[in-house]
Write a structure and sequence with these properties.
Elements (H helix, E strand, L loop, with lengths): L4 E5 L10 H15 L7 E5 L2 E5 L5 H8 L7 E8 L4 H13 L7 E7 L9 H14 L5 E2 L6 E8 L2 E5 L3 E2 L11 E5 L5 H11 L3 E8 L6 H18 L2 E7 L1 H10 L5 H20 L3 E3 L12 H8 L6 E2 L7 H11 L2 H4 L21 H8 L4 H10 L2 E6 L2 E4 L6
Parallel strand pairs: 5-6, 5-7, 10-11, 10-13, 11-12, 13-14
Antiparallel strand pairs: 1-3, 1-4, 2-3, 4-8, 4-9, 7-8, 12-15, 15-16
Helix pairs in contact: 3-4, 5-6, 5-10, 7-8, 8-9, 8-13
Length: 401
């Protein structure tokens, strides 16, 4: 059978009450943007549900797009009947279940009836549809506890939706409903996962990457562009800001105590990220920090490093261990790119014995030898901004200056 509709369900949005309509509008916008390559597909919004009329567009390709859109709890390829005739509903349900491959051995019918004008109650429909399927199939049996297939019948004002397949979505909130944050995006495993988890709460992100050419290669830069490209498949599009960091790292190495170089480097990164946040209208900075994972991620380090900014920090990985983070990176498709062996600025110039509990007064004293304000301003002014689109990377130098 060729499915002509996809029924979309959302979980958290249903709890938004008065603001629900605004969240739905953003979700519709995000779905339309993700399906730009399928111009015949039409997104239709009704109370409590969205559905897509495929109009001949390929279901399998669109399924892959919908799985990545935040705000969708689940969706189903669906047969839509405009008729409320019981016999037609029974016949359509039989056709839908016969189309399941491989043919199931057990099933149950689960009816929802938001349209209370429909004469048969949900429990009655379960029996009426289930009995009809049993009579017209040979080896199919009912199992209400653990069926191979659930025949879902949803009777709404705009028609009857029939489906045997439910695909899990990413859940969360639609990207664009929770403001904007700057994501400190390295080439490692953690920061792309932090970006994905931040987007799941409806936050639009822009990446900030610190590039220390020639100490870090063009391959390292491309690796981060590729990671941003993978993240953009979940957000629709994003900007990536590539900050020239060579001079700052060289000055830190030349004038600051070796054990404090990581701490001072991170303080500079925070200052620059905050300036970029102000410039581009972001209200927070997101990082991939996990408490205690490395020397610069102790409580004392975070205090000393964060002391230079006022902007709120988002740390979605703070209580996660490495195994949990790696599992998410594999799920979202960033892992294989993250482990490519190209160094970023955080892995060069690593001191032999980095301080794990840096003191604020010592960091401030070490920085007194540097022209902090001019170094930060120069880095911000010379940042390269790139538009990242899903499956398409376009460079736009100085576009946002």
């Amino acid at each position: 059978m060729h499915y002509e509709h996809i029924l979309i369900r959302y979980g958290e949005l249903a709890l938004k009450k008065k603001n629900r309509g605004d969240f739905e509008k953003v979700l519709v916008k995000n779905i339309k943007k993700a399906l730009q390559a399928y111009p015949k597909a039409q997104v239709i919004r009704t109370y409590g549900r969205l559905y897509i009329a495929l109009n001949g567009e390929p279901y399998q390709e669109i399924e892959g797009k919908l799985e990545k859109i935040f705000g969708i709890h689940s969706f189903s390829p669906t047969r839509l009947l405009q008729s409320f005739n019981l016999e037609e509903i029974q016949q359509a349900a039989l056709e839908v279940i016969k189309d399941v491959d491989p043919m199931p051995r057990t099933f149950k019918v689960q009816t929802k009836r938001p349209n209370k004008q429909f004469p048969h109650r949900s429990m009655d429909m379960n029996h009426l549809v289930g009995g009809f399927i049993l009579k017209n199939t040979e080896e199919l049996k009912v199992d209400v506890h653990n069926p191979d297939v659930v025949m879902q019948v949803e009777i709404r004002q705009d028609g009857v939706f029939l489906s045997c397949k439910t695909v899990a979505g990413n859940g969360g909130l639609p990207v664009g409903t929770g403001g904007k944050a700057m994501l400190m995006l390295s080439g490692g495993i953690d920061s792309p996962v932090a970006g994905w988890m931040t987007m799941k709460r409806g936050v639009r992100i822009e990446g900030v990457h610190f590039h220390s050419y020639p100490f870090t290669s063009e391959q390292a830069k491309q690796k981060v562009i590729d990671l941003a490209g993978i993240l953009s498949e979940y957000s629709g599009s994003m900007k990536l800001h590539i900050v020239p960091f060579t001079e700052i790292q060289t000055k830190i190495r030349e004038f600051c105590p070796e054990s404090y170089t990581i701490t001072i480097m991170r303080r500079f990164m925070m200052r620059i990220s905050e300036k970029l946040a102000e410039k581009h209208g972001a209200l927070a900075i997101a990082t991939g920090e996990s408490l205690g994972q490395v020397a610069s991620q102790t409580m004392e380090s975070m205090y000393t490093i964060n002391h230079v900014i006022q902007t709120p920090m988002i740390r979605p990985l703070i209580a996660m261990d490495k195994t949990e983070i790696v599992n998410i990176s594999k799920k979202i498709g960033t892992y294989e790119t993250s482990i490519l062996p190209y160094e970023d600025c955080c892995t060069i110039f690593v001191p032999k014995s980095p301080v794990t509990r840096p003191k604020l007064e010592i960091a401030e004293k070490a920085e007194a030898k540097l022209d902090v304000e001019n170094l930060v301003n120069w880095a911000v002014e010379n940042t390269e901004s790139i538009w990242i689109e899903p499956q398409q990377i376009e460079e736009e130098f100085d576009l946002f200056n």
